[in-house]
Specification:
Structural class: mainly alpha
Number of helices: 17
CATH architecture: Up-down Bundle
CATH topology: Growth Hormone, Chain: A
CATH class: Mainly Alpha
CATH superfamily: MFS general substrate transporter like domains
Radius of gyration: 21 Å
Strand content: under 5%
Largest sheet: none
Shape: globular
Order of helices and strands: HHHHHHHHHHHHHHHHH
Number of strands: 0
Distance between the termini: 48 Å
Number of domains: 1
């Protein structure tokens, strides 16, 4: 018999399946490439403009995520906020269909991408904050891991449908005109429909937390902003939450840079062509999804902190192997092993944040978590770029990723994990040692 709690878990995990289509198809593989090659005047200018748009979105996420989370905590409801942000992302993504392969559409494309990215990231604040109320006691790690694994799988399935059902289909379906890039542009409509359809079970199956006392929206905005300011003032830099947020900021920078520059490194150092990089990316995401699901049980067994540390050790060791790999075969071996540990590091991080966050400040804490994941996103790519230029070597540039992972690992060692591995956070998680 399917229990209400199991239905809630299924509904929650399906949101990961639904929303991962956006970063996979729009932000990474298809629309980003279309913009740089087909809309912008040239690839150099396109890359520059796309990077600026990404940076603008990251600043907005860093500034507004904690504030929105604090307000949502005061209203006592997550689903209306999740629905609003999801709709914003879906509508802005669908509107990208109107971006023709012409430089006159650059501004429209960038504005819509920024809006869609903000909607996507803000939605994740409220989605992640629902984890403690959805997961059964003692199973938060595996639920987070399954959700993350579903996300990798959903993004990949949508990517495969987009590539072979639209972009590479001969002849193009639905009478799409290749001369105006309609098969490529149609991928954003696929993402919008995919997101809307598969996110729907989340709103139907996941109940609202009825234990939270709500406030009227106007009062919640005022009280939420005051609460956030009070939290930041009393957040001791030595506290578990503060230490974890800084550690997460560092190793998340390393992971983001690894995702961003992995394909560039594969092409430049090992001579992979575009089709090989796509296949490598698909394989990498498959191993990451499988690793996230498998590590979910390990997370519940040994605790999320130890799971993150184990994943970081794997990333550091196999990252080093990828740096010294003498040929493409060894790079593939290192890359697949790296993927196995990418998903677990991300999934267990979500679990640890859920355990450290006081229940009445769950969304606010995940707002700060989003901030820690975006505040210094420029640091990894900037360091890599300068190291590559200074040493005239892609391997030297990629080596800087290991530094972020190592420092994040060392700082995470100092984080005190809550003793109760069930569902509740440590009451003193915002305070430093006595």
């Amino acid at each position: 018999m399917v229990t209400p709690q199991r239905r809630a878990v299924v509904g929650w995990c399906l949101y990961d399946w639904a929303n991962s289509a956006f970063p996979t198809v729009v932000s990474t593989f298809v629309f980003a490439a279309y913009f740089t090659k087909g809309v912008a005047a040239n690839e150099t200018e396109g890359t520059y403009l796309w990077g600026n748009a990404t940076a603008i979105a990251a600043v907005g996420i860093a500034i507004l995520s904690p504030m929105l989370g604090a307000i949502a905590d005061r209203t006592g409801r997550r689903k209306p906020w999740l629905a609003a942000c999801t709709i914003v992302c879906i509508l802005a993504t669908a509107a990208l269909w109107t971006v023709l392969p012409d430089p006159d559409y650059i501004l429209r494309a960038l504005v819509l991408v920024v809006i869609a990215t903000l909607g996507f990231e803000f939605a994740n604040v409220f989605y992640n904050a629902m984890l403690p109320s959805v997961a059964p006691p003692g199973r938060m790690g595996r639920v987070s891991g399954i959700g993350w694994g579903c996300g990798y799988a959903g993004g990949l399935v949508c990517l495969v449908v987009a590539l072979f059902g639209l972009v590479k289909a001969e002849p193009p379906p639905f009478g799409l005109d290749p001369d105006t890039a309609e098969p490529v542009r149609a991928t954003v409509l696929l993402v919008a429909i995919w997101f809307a359809v598969f996110a729907l079970p989340t709103f139907l199956l996941v109940p609202e937390d009825d234990k939270a006392a709500g406030e009227p929206l106007g009062q919640a905005i005022a009280d939420g902003c005051r609460q956030l300011w009070a939290t930041l003032r009393r957040l001791d830099p030595r506290s578990p939450v503060a230490r974890f947020l800084v550690a997460h900021m560092l190793y998340a920078d390393g992971l983001t840079t690894l995702f961003t520059f992995g394909g560039i490194y594969a092409a430049g150092t090992f001579g992979m062509d575009f089709s090989e990089i796509i296949v490598f990316g698909i394989a990498l995401n498959l191993t990451a999804g499988a690793g996230a699901m498998a590590f979910g049980w390990i997370d519940d067994w040994i605790g999320p902190k130890r799971a993150i540390l184990a994943a970081l050790v794997g990333l550091i060791l196999f990252g080093a192997l990828a740096l010294v790999a003498p040929d493409k075969t060894w790079f593939w071996i290192a890359g697949m092993a790296l993927g196995t540990f990418m998903g677990p590091a991300q999934a267990a991080s979500r679990t640890l944040m859920a355990k450290l966050a006081p229940p009445e400040q769950s969304a606010e804490m995940f707002g700060l978590y989003a901030l820690s994941g975006k505040a210094t996103n420029f640091a990894g790519p900037l360091t890599l770029g300068w190291a590559t230029l200074l040493f005239d070597s892609q391997r030297a540039g990629m080596a800087t990723i290991l530094a972020f992972l190592v420092v994040g690992f060392l700082l995470l060692l100092t984080v005190r994990e809550p003793l109760n591995r069930g569902a509740g956070p440590d009451a003193d998680s915002l305070k430093g040692p006595a």
